């Protein structure tokens, strides 16, 4: 049966009018229940991660860890995530990405308070292993569900989901900074975990009750995404039916390397920004939390405009420009002697990195389905796996400012890799 007839067979009875053939059906409206619920999941994921990030200095003092020892403990968060991602990709294929999303976020909410009760590097590593398992699984499941909605809506809206993540991170960092002197780490993370579980229940009901994405033609998926990403989007249906071929796997691999370089920078900033601002720039804990919040706000702003920029500039140009801006901003943030300049650098990094990771994951998902998301995410979060160790040991050997300059190198690489992806695609 021709593909066009297959598509018609999946339409509902009220989709027979000429207008319905050119516009999405009612449940596919730009801000339907499924998209709102999924955005809420991204937001609470970012909130819980930021709630942990702003408490890293307190936890380090609690366990009396050096930079390198803390880096090894933080490595466990990434190990838990990377080990879980391939498994979650297979679970999404078997059970669907939406139920797996709900289960993964529930684990994140349950695990979020545990690091506050660590009293050694080893116990902190174990707590972060559990937290990372939920966090990594949630990211694969959420992104797989988001790829399905991108196809359903026929617009490159992936940055908007990640904007929800960044907004959650902004709120989490803001409240974390405000409450740093008023709530203990244990209470702050416990309240965050309870909020996470409440959002998981509410958004989970809405997400699971929403109709699944209908089958759409590949050319419709890429129609509004711009000419540069049409090749990746065009393979979505084939990849959903059979294992990815060598060409698709190579494309996903290149996109995964782009995500890895981006995640290296995001992970380094998440884990070390507050310490850099307090130890090297000599700010207060509240100002340091505000610096991370400024970075999160910049990333949120960049992702809110990501769909519009993707259509206007094309994904490759947007990723190239973003990587170069992030590299320049990171050099300023790492080497500036004063807080305003350093925070300004982090703002540039947030704007530059904003759309690199979501666009790389979206294109990998369009090419390879949930397995493509899992492979690219595993590579991507591999950047977070090596980041804490590299930054920690370089900080002990040569200082945190010099260690931070490696993020500029990674951002430049992330800016250039999409050009190779374009030639391969």
What does this structure look like?
With 425 residues, the chain is an all-alpha fold. It has a single domain, classed as MFS general substrate transporter like domains (Growth Hormone, Chain: A, Up-down Bundle). The protein contains 19 helices and no strands. It starts with a helix and ends with a helix. Residues 1-28 and 214-244 have low confidence and may be disordered.
Helix content class: over 70%
Q: What number of domains?
A: 1
* Number of DSSP-assigned strands: 0
Instruction: Flag low-confidence runs.
Output: 1-28, 214-244
C-alpha end-to-end distance:
27 Å
Helix and strand string, N-terminal first? HHHHHHHHHHHHHHHHHHH
Q: Which band does the percent of strand residues land in?
A: under 5%
CATH top level is Mainly Alpha
Q: Output the CATH homologous superfamily.
A: MFS general substrate transporter like domains
What composes the largest sheet?
none
What count of helical segments does DSSP give?
19
The shape, in one word, is globular
């Amino acid at each position: 049966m021709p593909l066009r007839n297959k598509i018609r067979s999946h339409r509902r009875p009220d989709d027979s009018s000429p207008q319905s053939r050119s516009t999405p059906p009612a449940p596919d409206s730009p801000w339907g229940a499924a998209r709102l619920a999924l955005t809420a999941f991204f937001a609470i994921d970012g909130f819980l991660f930021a709630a942990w990030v702003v408490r890293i200095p307190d936890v380090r003092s609690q366990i009396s860890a050096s930079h390198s020892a803390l880096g090894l403990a933080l490595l466990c968060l990434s190990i838990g995530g990377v080990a879980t991602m391939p498994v979650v990709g297979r679970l999404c294929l078997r059970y669907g990405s939406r139920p797996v999303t709900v289960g993964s976020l529930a684990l994140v909410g349950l695990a979020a308070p545990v690091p506050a009760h660590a009293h050694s590097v080893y116990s902190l590593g174990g707590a972060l292993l559990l937290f990372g398992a939920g966090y990594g699984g949630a990211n694969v499941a959420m992104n797989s569900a988001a790829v399905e909605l991108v196809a359903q809506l026929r617009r490159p809206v992936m940055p908007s989901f990640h904007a929800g993540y960044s907004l959650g991170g902004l709120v989490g960092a803001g409240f974390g900074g405000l409450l740093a002197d008023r709530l203990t780490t244990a209470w702050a993370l416990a309240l965050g975990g309870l909020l996470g579980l409440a959002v998981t229940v509410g958004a989970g009901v809405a997400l699971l009750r929403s109709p699944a994405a209908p089958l759409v033609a590949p050319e419709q998926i890429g129609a509004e995404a711009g000419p540069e990403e049409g090749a990746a989007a065009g393979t979505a249906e084939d990849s959903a039916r059979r294992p990815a071929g060598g060409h698709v796997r190579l494309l996903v691999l290149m996109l995964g390397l782009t995500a890895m370089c981006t995640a290296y920078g995001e992970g380094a900033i998440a884990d070390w920004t507050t310490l850099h601002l307090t130890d090297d720039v000599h700010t207060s804990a509240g100002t340091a939390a505000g610096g991370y919040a400024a970075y999160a706000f910049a990333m949120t702003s960049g992702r809110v405009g990501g769909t519009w920029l993707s259509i206007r500039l094309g994904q490759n140009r947007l990723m190239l420009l973003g990587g170069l801006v992030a590299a320049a901003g990171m050099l300023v943030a790492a080497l500036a002697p004063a807080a305003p300049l350093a925070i300004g650098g982090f703002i540039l990094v947030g704007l530059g990195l904003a759309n690199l990771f979501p666009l790389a994951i979206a294109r990998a998902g369009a090419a390879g389905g949930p397995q493509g998301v899992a492979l690219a995410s595993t590579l991507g979060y591999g950047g977070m796996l090596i980041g804490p160790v590299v930054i920690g040991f370089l900080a002990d050997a040569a200082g945190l400012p010099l260690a931070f300059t490696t993020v500029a190198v990674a951002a430049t690489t992330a800016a250039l890799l999409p050009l190779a992806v374009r030639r391969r695609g």
